[in-house]
Amino acid sequence: MPIWTLHGNGRTVEPGKVVKPEERLNWGATVAIGAQHVVAMFGATFLVPVLTGFPVSTTLLFSGIGTLLFLLVTRNKLPSYLGSSFAFIAPVTAATATAGMGSALAGIVAVGILLAIVGFVVQFAGIGWVDKLMPPVVAGTIVALIGFNLAPVAWTNFEQAPVTASVTLIAVILFSVLFRGFLGRISIFLGVVVGYIVAVILGEIDYAPVEAAAWIGLPEFHIADFASPGTWAVIAMFLPVVLVLIAENVGHVRAVATMTDPSVNRHTGRALIADGAATTIAGFFGGSGTTTYGENIGVMAATRVYSTAAYWVAGAVAILLAMSPKIGAIFNTIPPGVLGGVTTALYGLIGIIGIKIWVDNRVDFSRPVNQYTAAVALVMAIAGFTMQWGDFQLGAIVLGSAAALVIYHLGNLIARWRKTGADDGGPIPAVGQLGGDPQEVR
Predict the structure, then answer these.
(1) Is 75 a member of any domain?
(2) To 5 degrees, how large is the angle CA 293–CA 294–CA 300?
(3) Structural domain of residue 236, as residue ranges?
(4) For the chain, how many helices (H) and strands (E)?
(5) Which UniProt keywords apply (predicted)?
(6) DSSP class of residue 23?
(7) What pLDDT band is residue 434 in, cutting at 50, 70 and 90?
(8) What are phi and psi of 55, to 5 degrees?
């Protein structure tokens, strides 16, 4: 791994220059930027375990460990923070309800292993086959259906405290349009803070668990359960998440390459392997599945500092925070009303990211194959289609993702044969971050 060289005078970034991954500013500035990365990832990373019922401290621990592992596997050349992936929320919620947390963790492990395998294939065979498997119309559909499938979950929390939920939702929206830059990128986190304050005023929070929690201690670990009969029935619903993680990782690598050095694209396979390994480890011991974070790309773009040294700092800080059960207990006090308000926005945004993939890649919806790829899959996800054979059940995310893949590829095969308007697809698109500054079109 390269040793960081000091950029310029170590204090400032010259106009038109960036601090490259193998460079760093002085350690004081590096620690400060690392702390910014922690704040940027925190709002999203803690929300996933809160929404799924996983221990927050455990998720933070494996988020930090996963980030350090990512830096090692990518040879310290690819700046990235691995935080909790929203793509896991729907399958984890469904699996926990039907088969328990251990089975949900087994699903996370399965995703991690499969993602790592894909990473090895990409490392040796390139990314072209992924582009063909999952062109923009399919990638956008799968991302969108995962978000829209969660709409009933948002309403379940919202209706328990509609006043708090409404204030939280309004705050998220206002912060996103009032602020530019860093504050705009953490509008969801700021909305949670406002909603939490309202919940405190309305007496909706119980602090007894916080008082009982220790200041320092190990997180709460849970072990993945592959032995229960219900486990193998729920693992299938996790597999579409692999497609989302591929899109997120590939998009992240391409974004960093665009802003630093095109040679960074050579590390795409290693990025997938690293995220797969981090997700596998987290799943084995009770953490949420991980992914590279667009929020932290925003911090790098704003600061022009792409140094991997800052991410070593961020990973270490996350691990230290995880060693305080009291901090985890505080996050677990977030009431249903706040969660209902923020998830109404958040789940919808996940769906909109999928639609943004269509827009950014100019998907041609005059072609029937594209129309039905998206239409059938989204209705399956929103309506909650299921298919069951005995104890084995396929949920809406699995069915919708499978429908998108089958309709697109089989439909294209027929359309080319009949010359009725096939879709040529295109390269796998980047999955954009939630919030942040709008991009100007020139």
Answers:
(1) yes
(2) 100
(3) 19-364
(4) 20, 6
(5) Membrane, Transmembrane, Transmembrane helix, Transport
(6) E
(7) very low
(8) -65, 130
Write the pLDDT tens digit of every residue in 64-98.
Answer: 999 999 999 999 888 989 988 878 888 898 888 88
- The string over 284-306, giving b where at least 16 C-beta atoms fall within 10 Å of a residue's C-beta and e elsewhere, is bbbbbbbbbbbbbbbbbbbbebb
Provide the mean pLDDT of the chain: 83
Collapsing DSSP states into helix, strand and coil, what is residue 273?
helix
Q: Which residues contact 313 (CB under 8 A, 6 or more apart)?
A: 30, 31, 33, 34, 35, 37
Tokens of 377: 């899959």
Q: Are 269 and 275 in contact (CB under 8 A)?
A: no
Contact 58, 332 (CB under 8 A): no
The answer to whether 115 and 242 are in contact (CB under 8 A) is yes
Residue carrying structure tokens 């009949």: 418
Tokens found for residue 155: 């309403």
In three-state secondary structure terms, 268 is helix
By DSSP bridging, strand 5-6 and strand 23-24 are parallel
Q: Tokens 């960036």 label which residue?
A: 18
In a domain, 92, yes or no: yes
Sign of CA dihedral 280, 283, 286, 291: positive
Q: Has residue 423 been placed in a domain?
A: no
Mean pLDDT across 306-329: 89
For the question of whether the overall pTM of this predicted structure is more than 0.85, the answer is: no
What single string gives the DSSP state of each residue in 313-355? Answer: HHHHHHHHHHT-HHHHHHHTT--HHHHHHHHHHHHHHHHHHHH
152/150 Cα distance (integer angstroms): 6
Residue 382 domain flag: no
DSSP helix/strand/coil, 207: coil
**Residue 216 vs residue 278, higher pLDDT:** 278
Closest of 78, 100, 7, 82 to residue 37, by C-alpha: 82
How many domains, the chain?
A: 1
Q: For residue 160, give the amino acid letter.
A: Q
Phi then psi for 431, rounded to 5 degrees? -90, 115
Euclidean distance between CA atoms 190 and 194, whole angstroms: 6
Residue type (1 letter), 12: T
The H or E element spanning position 388 is: strand 387-389
